[in-house]
Write a structure and sequence with these properties.
InterPro entries: WIT1/WIT2. By secondary structure, the protein is mainly α. It contains two helices and three strands; from the N terminus they run αβββα.
């Protein structure tokens, strides 16, 4: 080989060595970046893990509280429905009592008007009885004797 060819080979070898060194530097930089990113990710995971656990605990507590609230609402709804039913029953009873009181008042006024007039009832045996204004029961024979006494007086 000639010196010119040797110089060319040496120059090419030098270029290849530079390329290899450049590639080694690029690899080191990439490895350094990868290690740095891995450390950063590890620190972030270590930082976020407790927060995630705390959020999971909060979520579980919120779920438990939500279920307790739903149960409480269900109990209160049932109680209110019972009160509404009881109120409807009481309202019906009040209306019935009002009607009975009205009917009672009417019957009392009828009774008072019949107390002023003597009533005569005929029993099965043909015996007549009457009630006078004092409410005393009188038989047919006592009615005759009282009418006889009135005639002689």
């Amino acid at each position: 080989m000639k010196a010119n060819e040797l110089n060319e080979v040496a120059r090419r070898l030098k270029e290849l060595e530079c390329i290899v060194e450049s590639q080694k530097d690029d690899i080191e930089i990439a490895e350094h970046k990868a290690e740095s990113a891995e450390e950063k990710n590890t620190k972030e995971v270590e930082f976020l893990d407790p927060r995630v656990e705390g959020l999971e605990i909060s979520l579980n507590q919120a779920t438990v509280e939500k279920l307790a609230s739903a149960k409480n609402i269900n109990i209160k709804t049932s109680f209110i429905m019972d009160l509404v039913t009881q109120l409807a029953i009481e309202r019906g009873s009040t209306k019935r009592m009002f009607c009975l009181a009205k009917q009672n008042k009417s019957l009392i006024s009828k009774l008072e008007s019949t107390k002023e007039q003597p009533s005569i009832n005929v029993l099965e045996a043909g015996v007549a009885t009457a009630t006078d204004s004092s409410g005393e029961l009188q038989t047919e024979s006592s009615l005759k004797s009282s009418s006889d006494q009135r005639v002689t007086s």
